[in-house]
Amino acid sequence: MNRFHACDANTARLPFSCIRWVVLIGCMGIVGTASAQITASRILSADMDSTARLEERLINRLHATTETQAAYIRYVVKLVEEEKLETRLVVAIEQYAIRRNSRYAFPFFERALRYEAAKRGVALTSVRHFQSTAAPQR
C-alpha cells in the first residue's frame, strides 16, 4: 500500500519537495558566504596621456613578467606614439591574445602583432632579438 493517502499527484510529491529544500538550505549553511580578497585599485591620474595607460594596460593584461617583455611593450607603445601602428590594432591584438591564452598571453600578442605589423609595412623584431640587442643594464 502507498504511504500517501491522497490520490492527486501534487500531494504525493510534497515530501520529496520538502526534502529537496531541506538539503538546499543545509548546503547553504555548510558553505557559508563567499568572500574574496579585494585589492586596492590603482587610480590613474587624469593628467596621464593615453599612451601611458596603454603601456600599463598591455603590461598588466599580457602578464609581461620580465623586464625584456616590458621593454618590448614600451617599444610597441612608442611605435603607436609615432603613429606607425594604430592604437585600435594593438588593443585588438591584445584582446585576441588574451582569448587564446588568458594566463600567458604575451607570446600570442607578440606573434600576432609581428604578423599584422608586417602586413602594414612595419618591421617588428621578436622579443628574443630585442633582448639580445638591448643596451646592457648597469
The major β-sheet equals:
none
Shape: elongated
Using DSSP, what is the number of strands? 0
Low-confidence stretches: 36-41
Q: What is the H-and-E element order?
A: HHHHHHH
| Distance, first to last CA | 90 Å
Q: Would you give an account of this structure?
A:
With 138 residues, the protein is mainly α. It has seven helices and no strands. Mean pLDDT is 77; it is low at 36-41.
List keywords for this structure.
mainly alpha; 138 residues
Topology at a glance:
Blueprint: H1 9-12, H2 14-31, H3 50-61, H4 67-81, H5 87-100, H6 106-119, H7 127-132
In short:
The chain is an all-alpha fold and 138 residues long. Helix content is 60%, strand content 0%.
